[in-house]
Amino acid sequence: MNALDSTATLMDKERVLIVDDDPEMLNLLQALLESRGFAVYTASNGEMALHLLPQVAPDLVILDVLMPGLNGKEVCQRIRRHSSVPILFLTAVGEVDSVVDGLNRGADDYMTKPFHPSELVARVQAMMRRARLSVAPRRLMRFRGGELVINRDLGRVFLREEEVPLSPLEYNLLVFLAERAGHILPPETIHRAVWGPNSDGDLSHVKWYIWRLRQKIEADPRNPRFICTDRGRGYYFAPD
Predict the structure, then answer these.
(1) Maximum distance among all Cα pairs of the chain, rounded to whole angstroms
(2) Burial 66-103 (b: 16+ CB within 10 A, else e)
(3) At 87, which CATH number?
(4) What CATH number has the domain bearing residue 205?
(5) Full residue range of the structural domain in which residue 42 is found
(6) 173 Ramachandran zone, left/alpha/beta (phi>0; psi -120 to 50)
(7) What backbone torsions phi and psi does residue 168 show, to the nearest 5 degrees?
(8) Could you say which DSSP state residue 165 is in?
């Protein structure tokens, strides 16, 4: 597998964000889900989870209910203000009232601890399937009234109805930014997600490929309308 193929594979994986203040539980869940082909991100508290959410754009969140600081229910409520990502609660046996309150705040399902690993994986996969069915039309992303269209099913990009020739890495970079429209992303975050966690860490790659994308999709690359710069902080895809 060459570098571009491995990058595409990384970007194609479904992403799970696990939030739990128990390091052993985090490690267990991460190992379990990574062994099943998911890209896994972890947070040890609610504040960290809310910070990671726009950067990771997870396909599913596994959220412990009882945590110091922001508890799981509060985190769930904040996520629901701007995201419909599926949320699976983890809760101790006997916390029925807590579970009901959490479901009322926007959680999609729950499991009690301890749980069987195969059951958790099955529950995650089922929630992913339901989410894919419910958001299938969003795989066609349109910006500025359809001036720029990203068709994720075909893996193709169109600008004013003309196809834009992109390399696999350019396409993955554009999708990563577009999925997080409106969120400022540091170069380190972009590099880690698009090039992979084991890449050489040369952040000049990010600047170079941002420049290449602007040449292809911006009417005036020096005054971009799609991929913008927040000086000193990073890049962001301008929302409509």
Answers:
(1) 60
(2) ebeebbbbebbebbeeeeebbbbbbbeeebeebbeebb
(3) 3.40.50.2300
(4) 1.10.10.10
(5) 3-134
(6) alpha
(7) -55, -40
(8) P
Six-digit token string for 55: 């950067």
Residues 77 and 146 in one domain: no
pTM higher than the cut 0.70:
no
202 CB-near residues (< 8 Å, 6+ apart): 191
Residues 149 and 123 in one domain: no
Contact 91, 112 (CB under 8 A): yes
What is the total residue count of the chain?
A: 240
H helix or E strand, kind and range, residue 127:
helix 117-134
Taking only the tens place, the pLDDT of each residue in 155-213 is: 889 999 899 999 989 999 999 999 899 899 999 989 988 887 766 667 888 999 999 99
- Pair (125, 153) in one structural domain: no
The number of folded domains in the chain is 2
Pairing label, strands 162-163, 156-159: antiparallel
Amino acid at 75: V
Sheet holding 162-163, edge to edge: 140-143, 148-151, 156-159, 162-163
Domain match, 130 and 156 both: no
